[in-house]
Amino acid sequence: MMNRRDAIKTWLSLVAGGTTLGFADQPKPESPTDLVAPPPEHEAMHAMPRGWLGNETIGILMYPKFTALDLFGPHHIFISMAGAKVLLVAKTPDPVATDTGVKIQPTTTFADCPEKLSILFVPGGTTGTLEAALDKDTREFVADRGEKAEWVTSVCTGSLILGAAGLLEGYQATSHWMTRDSLKEFGAVPVNRRVVVDRNRVTGAGVTSGLDFALQLLKDIRGKDYAETVQLFSEYDPRPPLDCGTPEKAPKEMLKLLEDMFAPFGKQVTEMAREVRAARAN
Amino acid sequence: MMNRRDAIKTWLSLVAGGTTLGFADQPKPESPTDLVAPPPEHEAMHAMPRGWLGNETIGILMYPKFTALDLFGPHHIFISMAGAKVLLVAKTPDPVATDTGVKIQPTTTFADCPEKLSILFVPGGTTGTLEAALDKDTREFVADRGEKAEWVTSVCTGSLILGAAGLLEGYQATSHWMTRDSLKEFGAVPVNRRVVVDRNRVTGAGVTSGLDFALQLLKDIRGKDYAETVQLFSEYDPRPPLDCGTPEKAPKEMLKLLEDMFAPFGKQVTEMAREVRAARAN
């Protein structure tokens, strides 16, 4: 087994070199599904310590009006996994517009997505998320790949889609604080924690939890050393200039107002859950 | 002046309603540059307390091989500024590929970008960042809009582009820890802090500093209440599962190796700075 020095060096040449830094003379990805996959015959593959080089296939769901940051936090961490393929999977090959209208090109369609994913990851959103959960094709795709995946994961309201696909029944899970309790609609057990791991289900809280979520998952998959190196590389040492990031920390008045404003959305979630159950019963 | 309750309610109907939640029946953006601008005649505009509704124009630079998370952290905060236009500005109207190959559609070209920006924001990257700094059109665009902008800002190695454009001379600034000292090449004073504010220059450290950076800027522009509401809405209460996010916290061996690996990149930065100085002298 190579020593730690060589391991990190090889890792960097694969991850940083292959994607970000361009140190290594790696072939450029030719097809979209080759994104950041290192050359399979790379000499380092035989010398790498167990766990430092993998061959995961990570499928990230994109759907109209998802929230960009829900995706790009975890994506930044996933892409650091040397040897992994990271796919942006959408129903059609067309660019997908986020909830703020930014158009992003998927790499893979539902039809082209590998059957067996190492990680299925679903980002959140609001009305777009409900629409995705109500879309039969999307729900069936998530249910199918989720049942076969090694890890079934989400950030923010993405867990509502996992729930609608029947993947959270009997599992502890979380969501954006505003929709956390709605997870009960899908037979899940809501937990007030930033990242909830229950067997192979890993769910993150609202939007910005994506980095904590993905680092936790990376630690579980690739080990502590690997995750620490990625954390240092990403300079992830958060220092929020304010301390109002949870309902418990917020002024009561502000919280009450946000809750009141979101009440209609909560009702829409309940309605979605009812429709999904009805569709499944038929 | 309306009370706090009405203010938050109005804010939500504009921000959450207009972009994320779809509560309000706002017209959908028709041209790309209309992204999330509320209707100018919205009745709330006259009733909003000072600072809760603005009309900022925010220009975010996109260039080949930028790092997606550098952009989408701050973008998530900027987009919450009711009344602001958030533009993704690139040299040409074509989709821009990030350093991991994700293609993202800009909204605005250099030629179409308003002269006077409230915020100019530049994300980082690695080889792509050096290439952007060496590109005369990009450098001149950044220099021109930066000289006229109210706030000149960056995250990660984005500060190298600001520096190359001559915008950091005599300013305190920061960058990814690996390139922070290189800011001296551009006459800046490197500071080891997650977010550095010097007059109207606001720079963030590596990649993940984007949220801390943007919340700080939001607080300075829209005030504490506004920034806290956005923080709660984004559930920004980070809980990294590991504690290795800075050189000071990392094992010495890991740090030394990363530094060694990055030494060639540091030389490329020095070379870039020399070329830029030579170009300016001619």
What can you tell me about this protein's structure?
Two copies of one chain form a homodimer. With 282 residues, chain A is of the alpha/beta class. Chain A has a single domain, classed as Rossmann fold (3-Layer(aba) Sandwich). Chain A is built from nine helices and eleven strands. Chain A has helices spanning 4-21, 44-47, 68-78, 127-134, 136-148, 158-164, 210-222, 224-233, 252-281; strands spanning 57-61, 85-90, 96-97, 103-104, 108-109, 119-122, 151-155, 172-173, 189-190, 195-198, 201-204. In chain A, strands 5-2-1-6-7-11-10 form a seven-stranded mixed sheet, with helices on both faces. In chain A, strands 3-4 form a two-stranded antiparallel ribbon. In chain A, a hairpin with a 5-residue loop joins strand 3 and strand 4. In chain A, helix 3 (68-78) packs parallel to helix 7 and helix 7 runs antiparallel to helix 8 (224-233). The longest helix of chain A has 30 residues, at 252-281. Chain A is globular, with a radius of gyration of 19 Å. The interface between A and B is large, with 84 and 84 residues.
Topology:
Two copies of one chain form a homodimer.
Chain A: H1 4-21, H2 44-47, E1 57-61, H3 68-78, E2 85-90, E3 96-97, E4 103-104, E5 108-109, E6 119-122, H4 127-134, H5 136-148, E7 151-155, H6 158-164, E8 172-173, E9 189-190, E10 195-198, E11 201-204, H7 210-222, H8 224-233, H9 252-281
Parallel strand pairs in A: 1-2, 1-6, 2-5, 6-7, 7-11, 8-9
Antiparallel strand pairs in A: 3-4, 10-11
